[in-house]
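Schema walk-through. Below, the input block comes first and the output block second. Nothing else is stored per chain. Lengths vary across the set, and this one has 307 residues.
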Amino acid sequence: MNAVTNIQKYSIHDGDGIRTTVFFKGCPLRCWWCHNPETQKFESELQIDTPKCTGCGRCEAVCPTGAITMSEPAEGGRKSLIDRSKCIRCGKCVDACLGNYRVLVGREYTVEELAKICMQDQMFYEQSGGGVTLSGGEVMAMDSGYIKSLVKTLYREGVDVDIDTCGQAPYSNFEAILPYVHTWLYDIKAIDEDKHKKYIGVSNRLILDNLKKIAKAGARIYIRIPTIKEVNGDPESMAQIIDFLKENGIQTPQVNLLPYHSTGSHKYGKLGRDYPAEDLTAPSDEEMESFVKQWNKAGFANVKIGG
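--- output ---
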């Protein structure tokens, strides 16, 4: 499945210039702070804005598996309840909801359909030095043939394609599209493997190995670091990332330090999940500025907060 959750036009934070960012559904990581939890699972998901539910019961009436029931009347009125273990994601309740409070997340496109949508704003790409960014979820965990066909199609049309990646995918997937990618927006969360396993859910070995390989192959790489106080928001953790890049000769024209935020936390409830990052915090503005100086002192001139 190569499902897309969102196509965001006029994006200015996912690479250079004005871009169209395509968010694919499915990711092998489980970062505690993920602000796009609807992109984690590879299959479609039902997203419900329960507080807005009017309790009309239309969803319960059309559900073919009995997954939906209505709560007892209480302050605020009745609400729909769902047993997600019974839900087959047929979308009938979505069609029945008069308030559009239910969404089936994840839509599949052919390469031709997706490329056509991306090409609609080519004029803005040309004027601003922008293009298309494929993101996620994790775009490199999608079907390799599909992604290669999409990237090559855009490349032939003269569109710069950036790949926003966590790096957790077979190297063959990277190798297949290296000649057609303008810039890799490559996340590094932590060098310490134990910390990586705790907060991200997997070892970082494949991620760091792929970074070394694409750098050796001559890829243009922007390093992006989601910066969380408890994970990597301290001078020692920053030094570990800096040392890794320098020791492996990895050149990067840009480093983005992305302060932690919880703006995506409300999505977890809509998916029937708890938000794991309640106790995580962002470094202060002063700490973020000190990290920039730390990177500058190490020889990295273009270091930005955010972006």
